[in-house]
Amino acid sequence: MTTKYEQIPSSLFVKNRKKFAEKLLPKSLAVFNSNDIYPISADSTMPFQQHRDIFYLSGVDQEESILVIFPDAYLEENREILFLRETNDHIAVWEGEKLSKDQAYEVSGIKTVYWLSDFDKIFKSLMYEAENVYLNKNEHYRSAVETELREDRFIKKVQAEFPMHNYKRSNPILQRLRSIKEPEELALIQNACNITEKGIRRLLSFVKPGVWEYEIEAELIHEFVRNRSKGFAYTPIIASGNNANVLHYIANNMQCKEGDLILLDVGAEYANYSSDLTRTIPVSGKYSERQKEIYNSVLRCKVEAEDRLVAGNNWHRFHKEMGEVYTSELLQLGLIDKADVQNEDPKWPAYKKYMMHGTSHHMGLDTHDYGILTDDFVENMVFTNEPGFYIPAEGFGVRIEDDYVIQSSGKPFNLMANIPITVEEIEDVMNS
Fold this sequence. Notes:
Elements: H1 10-21, E1 28-33, E2 39-41, E3 44-45, H2 52-58, E4 66-69, E5 80-84, H3 89-94, H4 101-108, E6 112-115, H5 119-129, E7 132-135, H6 150-161, E8 166-169, H7 171-179, H8 183-204, H9 213-225, E9 237-240, E10 261-266, E11 277-282, H10 289-306, H11 315-333, H12 338-342, E12 382-385, E13 388-391, E14 396-399, E15 402-405, E16 413-414, H13 423-431
Keywords: Aminopeptidase, Hydrolase, Manganese, Metal-binding, Protease
Catalytic activity: Release of any N-terminal amino acid, including proline, that is linked to proline, even from a dipeptide or tripeptide
Protein name: Xaa-Pro aminopeptidase
């Protein structure tokens, strides 16, 4: 089966499974299901997106797949098993090629591969051997899922059929494992960032007064897809003028006017890995003095944040420290005064009038990736760094964002260091 991206070495998934298996209690079996293909209406469906957990552990990027990990299984061939939808000539003609058993081994490094029709029989025999069963629910701090997933249906079914087993949660293990990236993963994220750079450079020479936000979106998707990306890692925000003050503005349907700024929060995916970038650029290729003043203030905040995205810090402490940085910058800009700070509500400090979101989140297979926020930052975690000031009264907002890898000591490594960021760099590229 061919994917758009270059095949990832199966050694990555072998490593990931080993790390996961080491965290299980003795006599434990863990099960992971692919995502559903979601219907739209009539016979149309959404494009398939693989469940990131089964992808992380197997590299299998197709629907109706099940992974079973059972490190203490009596028979060695039962310690890792993939169940796949059986492929045939009819499926190949109508839907395209699906993984064969040999290809599944190449992708995942898992030797034991069965068709899905054998699942119930084989799973039942494994359950008689297992005492603990690790099931997988999304426990991300931002998750708000209303849809019943394939995983949810499986959990109901297995608990009804085997009520006497001891049930455990896989997700806390995966939250920790997935938050620390392997070198191969960092290379995939770097590639996603490099594709994003190509898109940004393309649109910097494209943007001029009168262009529409959706035309900018079209330039980006063109550049992303021709570089083997499936497209945007998340819904793009292309927000000119006052639209920038709507944090999740995704309509992208306004015309860009001379003198305005455009806030672009866009990133390409590559091989299911995300990138996440924000730049705020002038429609006419030149910032006004006031726009430049705010922009440079936000850029200083981003540099200050770099000093704090270091091993040993943690997410909560980092955000508290950044609040002090914002307060100091906003005082200098005259947007808040000392009285505002003295009288502030500790739950909603004065700076939050102009900067109301977090500065940073884990990033990886998901744009808002797994990670336990109370854990210390450690080497090879990947974080965004995205300060912003939003000033509706002045008709613009500025956010600047790059993606960083935590190092064992010292400053983080910027995966987006090659993308124009200063006022001068952006103006130069736009006017060249």
